[in-house]
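SAMPLE LOG
Freezer: B-3
Tube label: C17
Construct: single chain, 498 aa
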Amino acid sequence: MNNNERKHIYYRIKIVVFVVILFGGMILGAIYTLRPKYSDIEKRELQNLPKPEFSTVWDGQYFSTLTTWYADTYPFREELIKADGVLDDLYGIQTEQITGSAVVADEIPEVGNEEVAQGDMDLTFEEEGDFVWDEVEVDETSKNDDLEDAQKDTDIHVEDTTTEDAEFAEVDEQNTTVDDNNIAKDKGEKEEPVSVSKKDINNGQTFGSIYVTKERSFSLYYFSLSAADNYAKTINKIAKKLDGVANVYDLLAPTSVGIYVDEEKSKMIGSSDQKAAFDYIYSKLSKKVKAVDAIDNIKSHNKEYLYFKTDHHWTALGAYYAYEKFCETKGIKPNPLSSFEKREYTGFLGAYYAATDQSKLVKKNIDTIEAYVPMGTNSMVYTDKQGVEHNWPIVNDVSKYKENSKYSTFVAGDNPYSVITNKNSKSKETCVVIKESYGNAMIPFLVDHYRKIYIVDYRYYKGSLTSLVKKKKINDVIFVNNAEAINNTVVSLIDKIK
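STRUCTURE (predicted):
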């Protein structure tokens, strides 16, 4: 057999293999019963098969949605994504590899140099009192970018809760009964140091807005000037409505990139300065709002386990240092960490694993959930998205939960409305915490300072915040939002519940 014959055989084999794979993939994609409807890793419902309508077919929306459905629900999608990640790993870690669309953050104005002084930001209202967005500050292109980024942020938080009811159902029935005494004892095991090496941070890998190093992953932060201004306006508006009725606190929670990554490296990877961003937002709040500036206190402990390595949330320890600053702002004494009973749940694999297409590097840094049980009570009542009430522990046993669902140990995860009653509290005061998922880890520390705590997740709550405060005679209104939640989509959700 000469060389030409060998080449012909080789090419024929390649063609046959290609055709088999092509038609095999087509046949596999055509088997409707194999198509998944839910992603366990991404914790979300997959795209539903669209129904053709004349209007959507005419404008092309139907075909666009159909394409999304075909790709989103392809059989064995998660296995294929995992295989793709394995192939990517064969290339090795590449410094500053950026995938996905780039985001350009707005420049952060220096505090004191703005034309608008503190507390003087004009609020614009329609006759009914509805908020009118200040569109002159941003053109259509940048506004759409803000909304797109905001939606991505909202999605990553919603992923924490879309399957809560299903997750709870998977746990043994005995866990549905609140038992303050049924708490795992702290084994007293010595923690391993969790300091982040500067060398490793400088040799990471970027997946769109996720920056991955050997030791941990970070979500990059992009400052939006219009969102920052609108956020301050919304909080000011609520504080004005509650003036003389309740104290209004605003706590901005930094994310891990603002605590562990220095200024020089942040600029290199395109992440905005969270300290400067928070200073700007706080400078825009009126005197009726008490700013809880916790970033310095948290950063002073940045050698500790303050943020998860595989997830965008802070740990209970990170939330504790924010709680310390809240107590200082309120003028009360924080309870020492040693006074709480500590619980640990190993094997937590957070949102970064799905966001990086199941990166092996992320999975190597699997986390441990640490939670601190309130002293006065570990009982609460939450109302789910269907309006059904449930008795539940404030800190729940999540040892049997899926590896990506363990953050829901805190206050039953994200629900529209919850109530904690602490009859053992020496204080008769009440508060409402308005939050996204970052607030969950902080709430257990507040329990022993209040007789009642109302919890409102503005992404799902349908009521009126000011009406709730007046009806329940609430003393303190506490906003807790992480840096990435300061976007126009989230701000509009807060504004809706005013």
